[in-house]
Specification:
Blueprint (H helix, E strand, L loop, with lengths): L1 H15 L14 H22 L3 H10 L7 H5 L9
Length: about 90
């Protein structure tokens, strides 16, 4: 009895809850503009993530200030501690 009811309910669910048939469209409409804006924001966001999480900007500024050379970059950005061990 329960198996029969389950099968009947499953059949009714499968028949009555079908997805509507698709309709033809000439394009994706407003979504094209939305995807363009999202892609531009993602490029800007990824650029900012790279800029703030790496030494790239620091190196470029140092190189610009010191005539195109990175000589002394490590010594300036990572100074030695004045505390001595021992």
């Amino acid at each position: 009895n329960n198996v029969f009811e389950i099968r009947v309910d499953a059949d009714k669910y499968a028949v009555n809850c079908r997805r509507a048939p698709g309709q033809r469209a000439s394009g994706i409409g407003i979504w094209e503009h939305v995807l363009g804006v999202v892609s531009q924001l993602s490029v800007i966001t990824n650029g900012l993530v790279i800029a703030f999480n790496s030494d790239f900007v620091t190196k470029v500024v140092y190189e610009y200030r010191h005539g195109g050379s990175l000589d002394g970059y490590v010594a300036e950005t990572h100074p030695l501690s004045p505390v001595r061990n021992g």
